[in-house]
Amino acid sequence: MSITVDLEKILFENPIDIESMKPLTKTEDGDGDLRNLFNYNPEFIQWLVDNNTSLVVSSYKTATIYAIGSLKDPRDNQNKLSMWVSSFNRPMGLHTSPHRIWISSSGNLWKYDNVGQQPDKENFGDFDASYIPTMAYFSNDIDAHDICVDKHGNPYYCSATFCCICVPSQTHSFRVFWKPPWISKVAPEDRCHLNGLCSRDGEPRYVSCICMGDAKNSWRDNRVGRGVIYDIKENRVVCKNITMPHSPRWAHGKLWILEAGTGWLGTVNLEKGIFEKLLWIPGYLRGLCFVGDKYMVVGSSEDRHESTFKNLPLGEELKKNGKEAICGFFVVNLRTMKIEHTFQFFSPINELYDVCSVEGITRPKIEQLNNVAYEETV
Asked: How far is CA 195 from the centre of its chain?
């Protein structure tokens, strides 16, 4: 399903049953208007255009992936927001590039390849990238989270359930690439909730864990101030005493992380082994990507008042700042550390997991599994 949006009009480029969506889109306004699903500042569209980029966002609670881009409407020569909405089973980790997207989904790892420009037959403009599923690796639910890709294009992904980094296997559900040294046994017990992973210099390097426990579900009682960032190459903890760390990312010579349990974005001082806070954002932070050398995009979820989120410092931070946690993403200027653009989702979309940029692609489309793409030989 695709939505082309300006502030005055919404065009659905594939037919949908609007009546059936009203219960899902009802907000405080109560009128079921689909525009109530999200809001953004108008300058955000121009930011996408100026940076020649698009964004892909995953939301596992609503089983949806959003491909957000821009296009120029020939009727008024104005840039408009384009949103391609794909249904997906519990999507979480993403890894994007102009030619390929990897998606983690419960126990599965999906590879989508870009088959090129696709016409938009319903309305104006074309999609400059169309990603179709070309390969998948299946297993039972291992609670797959973050994905990274090495310099050879090989994928690595986190299993929170088994507390390890996985790689695809031709004979098993997955192959263990690495497990934390404090984990005595690879078992489906979610002992430390290993959730985050990133590469550095073309190889998997840093992971985030909620705690260093070695008992079944021990992280649930050790969420505050027990999180660590671990360097799997140097085999050492590079930062500890973090509250629910997520989304480690190496960029611009620094290791960036999100302290989801407090709402702080910051970097790891690798020499001192400490988390240096840079910007507070009102939300449970997950999903971090970079656009060029000037911007980053940070994903945020609401405090859903579930057991996982109870008694976190985030609640006090929100209260202290007079804010409510929001679901959406924020464009942050790396030079000023200030938020320049905000894109907010509304109920029923109250959480995001990952956000990735696709630089060089302005209007992406991620095909549904039941759609067919074929190649002719003449």
From this structure: 12
